């Protein structure tokens, strides 16, 4: 079910509305998953950079790879 962040879920007769603590706990869970995903993607990109640079001996080519890595970080920053 897709819901906007502001939309409250519909309650049945036997359910209690969520408390403020429940809402905060849910937000913390969502933010921690987002942070974990961000860290994972960043580490993956850094490993790829190290791998690409290690494949070449030419300093200029290494700088070009590093430049594109930095550009990608800037462009795809969330």
From TrEMBL:
Keywords: Membrane, Transmembrane, Transmembrane helix
Source organism, top-level taxon: Eukaryota
Biased composition (Basic and acidic residues): 1-12
Name this polypeptide is given: Uncharacterized protein
The keyword Membrane belongs to this UniProt entry's keyword annotation: yes
Residue span of region Disordered: 1-24
Annotated transmembrane regions: 59-76
């Amino acid at each position: 079910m897709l819901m906007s962040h502001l939309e409250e879920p519909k309650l049945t007769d036997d359910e209690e509305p969520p408390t403020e603590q429940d809402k905060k706990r849910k937000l913390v869970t969502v933010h921690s998953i987002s942070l974990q995903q961000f860290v994972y993607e960043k580490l993956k990109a850094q490993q790829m950079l190290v791998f690409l640079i290690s494949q070449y001996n030419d300093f200029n080519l290494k700088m070009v790879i590093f430049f594109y890595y930095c550009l990608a970080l800037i462009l795809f920053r969330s």
